Amino acid sequence: NVKISSVKGGNVExxxxxNPAIEKLRFEGNENLKExxxxxxxxxxxxxxxxxxxxxxxxxxxxxxxxxxYNGYPAAKIEPKFISRHGNKVDVVIxxxxxxxxxxxxxxxxxxxxxxxxxxxxxxxxKEKATWRLxxxxxxxFGFEKTRIDADALNRFYKDEGYYDFKTEKxxxx
Length: 174
What we know:
This protein is α+β, with helices and mostly antiparallel strands. Helix content is 28%, strand content 21%. The strands form two sheets. A three-stranded mixed β-sheet has the order 3-5-4, covered by helices on one side. The chain has a two-stranded antiparallel sheet with strand order 1-2.
């Protein structure tokens, strides 16, 4: 922030208020996405010693929310908190409420005529949640990146079978 004011005798006074430097950065509430992963997501944009900038904070929060969505936590809430420190410094605390992990309870294919649903389910990574499945729970976790991979797998399968004009229209979570 810069403030310019006129002073008597033709002198001009310019007041400058610098953004504070980040003294400490910490994450709270993250159990499923580890701190190392979160720090990789925010890269160098938000780090100890960097200048505090609210626009950068909003970008980081948005990126973290996207990461949680991609990892099966679409309801995650991320709230940045700021603690003013002496010497124009600030601590940044990223509070995270991960929420419940979204699991796929049912997979429905629409418009498939050449292959039944069981054949198509074998071709994709995503699996339906099953109470009997002790291992491989991660296969039933919903994630947007996984849906893209599944769509690519279906496209390849159909093209390999001679359906060159095939394409996955939409994958809609409900």
